[in-house]
């Protein structure tokens, strides 16, 4: 077997949450390009179908489930539907997440605190519990990739309300804990921590706070924000046999921003 063969995902099936746009879309397309069939879960039907069509043009199967996994009941129902209709799942990418608002801690309502924790952390727990639990029961190993953030490792400048940072820190430690528990089952669990990527929410934030985002750009050693397609090869690596001996890792992809 050649070295590049170890990166192939032929005959594997991927479930990715938040897979219709941005970083999720690029990871889904990259894994399809490497040979995986893909189940996409997201809120918006049109975007789901457009991404599914792009995957099919690569010669892979694509299935869609429209659900808001930031809502705990909907997340559980979606995961159970995936296992029932599209299982078994070999690779799980818990990608859904976001900050959504900028409210200082002293003014942050409790329901908004819970909203962001549920979106970023509870969804990761529930999907891992249900889809990862099925991997354990199946007994054939698996790959789980949690999309955390450098915000779980550092405190962002100029932004109020730390529920997002708290949630992503929880994702990182949940990754490590689950990796330790499930290594015996040959299931690897790793976290990707992106820095500043110009996804749709960040494009909106940059228009609202241009001076803040220019400050961020100036503090990136590589000189610019990341592109969504930069995440695809890393996700393929962690999902593949090439990363069989990596588990519990937190891999930063931020152009060097968090070095300072």
Q: What characterizes the major β-sheet?
A: 7 strands, parallel
The succession of helices and strands, N to C, reads EHEHEHEHEHEHHHE
Our measurement of the CA-to-CA distance between the termini, rounded to an integer number of angstroms, reads 41 Å
CATH hierarchy: architecture: 3-Layer(aba) Sandwich
The level-1 CATH class: Alpha Beta
Query: How many beta strands in the DSSP annotation?
Result: 7
Number of domains: 1
Any idea of the CATH topology?
Answer: Rossmann fold
What sort of overall outline do the alpha carbons produce when their principal axes are compared? globular
Tell me, rounded to a whole number, the average pLDDT.
95
Output the radius of gyration. 18 Å
Task: Name the CATH superfamily classification.
Answer: NAD(P)-binding Rossmann-like Domain
**β-sheet strand percentage:** 5-15%
Helix content percent band:
40-55%
Main structural class: alpha/beta
Q: What are the low-pLDDT stretches, counting only 5+ consecutive residues below 50?
A: none
Give the number of helices: 8
Give the strand line-up of the largest sheet: 3-2-1-4-5-6-7
């Amino acid at each position: 077997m050649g070295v590049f063969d170890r990166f192939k995902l032929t005959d594997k099936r991927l479930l990715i949450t938040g897979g219709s746009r941005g970083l999720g879309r690029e990871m889904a397309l990259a894994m399809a390009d490497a040979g995986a069939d893909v189940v996409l879960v997201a809120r918006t039907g049109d975007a789901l179908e457009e991404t599914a069509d792009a995957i099919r043009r690569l010669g892979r199967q694509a299935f869609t489930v429209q659900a808001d996994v930031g809502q705990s009941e909907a997340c559980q129902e979606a995961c159970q539907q995936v296992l029932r209709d599209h299982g078994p799942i070999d690779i799980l990418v818990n990608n859904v997440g976001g900050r959504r608002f900028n409210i200082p801690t002293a003014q942050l309502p409790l329901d908004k605190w819970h909203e962001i924790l549920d979106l970023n952390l509870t969804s990761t727990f529930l999907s891992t519990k249900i889809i990862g639990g099925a991997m354990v029961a199946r007994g054939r190993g698996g790959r789980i990739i949690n999309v955390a953030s450098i915000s779980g490792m550092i405190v962002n400048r100029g932004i109020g309300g730390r529920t997002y940072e708290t949630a992503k820190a929880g994702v990182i430690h949940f990754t490590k804990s689950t990796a330790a528990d499930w290594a015996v089952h040959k299931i690897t669990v790793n976290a990707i921590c992106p820095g500043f990527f110009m996804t749709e929410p960040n494009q909106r934030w940059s228009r609202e706070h241009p001076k803040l985002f220019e400050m961020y750009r100036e503090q990136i050693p590589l000189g610019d924000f990341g592109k969504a397609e930069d995440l695809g090869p890393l996700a393929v690596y962690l999902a593949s046999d090439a990363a069989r001996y990596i588990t519990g890792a937190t891999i930063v992809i931020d152009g060097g921003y968090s070095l300072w």
